[in-house]
Amino acid sequence: MLRAILMRAGQALLGLFALTLMLFAMVRLTGDPAYFLTGPGASIETLERVRAKLGLDHSLPVQYFTYIRNLLTGDLGDSFRFGIPVSDLVLQRLPATLTMAFAAIVVILAVALPLGIYSAYWRGGIVDKIGTIVAALGQAIPSFWLGIMLILVFAINFRLLPSGGIGGLSHLILPTITLAVEPIARLTRLLRSSVIEELGSDYVTFHRMKGLPERTILWKHVLRNAGMTSLTFVGIMTVGLLTGSVLVETVFVWPGIGRLLVEGIEFRDFNVVQGVTILITAAVILTNFLVDLLYMVLNPRLRTGAST
């Protein structure tokens, strides 16, 4: 098991290194931030002075190794636009993203768990038909379009909810729904197929012969085994929500780290784009690693295979 853990950790570090190289190259293809910061009428001397201040006057290999050195010490650099450390910007924006992500997780679990389980239990019934429609529409509708439609209906036409920004509970409703719809559809579909498979297992027949209530069989035994199939998706879904949806935060002008990333791209703020993307990717890689470990803990066969 230790060997498997070390191998997965090595793969995670290698993937993170490859990402830093690719990200470093891609953000520099967007243009020179010195032109944006100085304006169209700036002289060559002014441009060179700004580049020297930002460290952009060095060769690309030197810039990259400087970036890696700072990254290893936890320094994400300073924002070209705001003039403050990127880590401070992330800490300022993170609470807004966490608030929306937590609300979305509550909605997703409250809807997808019972809908997925009872769609499988009452297969072909009205609940199953509702679950199928929800799964199909949720995966087909783009989140940005859904967000715009919700704004048009509930904020502009009926004036029931705010169209964007951060504030009280009313500001949270529309972005939470928009963020939760697609994960609800995917989790419902995964759970339905997994529960259908588990309901045909011998242990379910055995528990029914023992006289266990159907609710206990479904929520204690079937869900525990069916949940293994959905474990990877739940982990990635949680990270995706915690790091914030770029589109949702942009549509609703939600001041989270997803919108911070968009602003960094718009203003060619290299350090912001690199810093936020690295943090998001590191969270995804770490979650995948933890999910792999959880699989080993829950499934003894994986531990046995890892040790051989």
Detailed description of the structure:
With 308 residues, the chain is an all-alpha fold. Helix content is 79%, strand content 0%. It is built from 14 helices and no strands. The N and C termini lie close together (8 Å). The mean pLDDT is 85.
In short, what is this structure?
This protein has 308 residues and is an all-alpha fold. The protein is built from 14 helices and no strands.
Please count the helical segments: 14
* Number of distinct beta strands: 0
Run of helices and strands: HHHHHHHHHHHHHH
Q: Helical proportion?
A: over 70%
Terminal CA distance: 8 Å
The biggest beta sheet reads: none
Shape descriptor: flat
Approximate strand percentage: under 5%
Mean pLDDT: 85
Provide the gyration radius in Å.
Answer: 24 Å
Structural class: mainly alpha
Q: Poorly predicted ranges (pLDDT <50, ≥5 residues)?
A: none
Features:
308 residues, 0% strand, 14 helices, 79% helix, mainly alpha
Topology:
Layout: H1 2-27, H2 33-38, H3 44-54, H4 60-72, H5 86-121, H6 126-140, H7 143-157, H8 169-199, H9 202-210, H10 214-242, H11 246-251, H12 257-266, H13 270-298, H14 300-307
Helix pairs in contact: 1-13, 5-6, 5-8, 5-10, 6-8, 7-8, 8-10, 10-13, 12-13, 13-14
